[in-house]
Amino acid sequence: MDSREGGVDRFIEFMKLSMEPLMQRSLNYIIFKYDSASFEDYAKAHPPGSQNFEDWMRVAAFYDFLGAMVKRGFVNADLVFETFPIPWLKMRPVALGMREALRWPDMWEHFESLDRQEREAREDREKKAAAKGEKKSKRK
After folding, report:
1. Domain locations along the chain
2. Contact, 41 vs 80, CB < 8 A?
3. Is the whole-model pTM more than 0.70?
């Protein structure tokens, strides 16, 4: 099996994981309910062990692992960016606050990098589309 085929297999496994009921609940929480400006406020309202805290951690860990897989070339980055919305900007205040509070400088590093790579890839696509006279992506 070549690396591209293996990458597709791994990608399909990520898709299956993202569709699991527990992960769907966690993703829905992040997308539709979660809103916090700081780790301190979030941890007070949703302490470690609470369902919301666990949902937050599950989504962050999923994207952190996905980012590590992209970094190592085990999963195709463009395929990830075309399929998964990367919620780093929404989760960033809590992620960075958690990183600082726990004195863990590389916590969520792959998740953050995945977002940066996605934005760079989107900007490249938009530049190419503009050169061809196509419309820009609406996501910022």
Report:
1. 3-132
2. no
3. yes
